[in-house]
Specification:
Length: 202
Amino acid sequence: MEAQNYLRKLRKLKRTKHTDVEDKVAKTLFDLETSHKTLKKQLPRFHINGVRIVSSPSLKKSVMVVFYPLRFLMLVRSIQRVLTAELEKKHTGSIVVLVAQRKITKRPSDVYKLQKVQRSRTSTAVFESILNDLIFPCDVVGRRWRCRTDGSKVMKVFLDARDRKKIESRLPALAYVYKLLTHRVVTFGFMWNPKLQQVSSR
């Protein structure tokens, strides 16, 4: 009975065997649901789709990427800081990031069918949403693109300098995860001058 209780926090999109890491995260979510004062109200209707461990010699810590259904996006946004902190306490030595599971619609060859594709399902929109998931709760205040001589592009994302202490130590890991998920290279920086920001300052 106890096994069934914590396994309801894990619902994989494909009927594949769940890994040991996914079991541990599901147990952690179930424990937080029953004992945590802040999270026990929101977590009963929340579950995840899978967990992926990302590691690299260039990173000091491994990264635990937790995927969850897109319909829980607003719920996760409201508790993401607390939930991420609790997961990192339980799984020491790992950086935890929460990413919503999104679907990209293949670009049709027919021009008339192209008009029916939702913008939220295009690769550009999905990759932008993944970036916002990774850097939350920080805001993107500017973007620059640099074209290399080999034809490849590098995107530099500028974050608000007031959030530097919160996220600076995590940026190398976030850039590596973003490249792994989207096959696009991104670098991060901080913009000090509020007059150059592309969004209004808070």
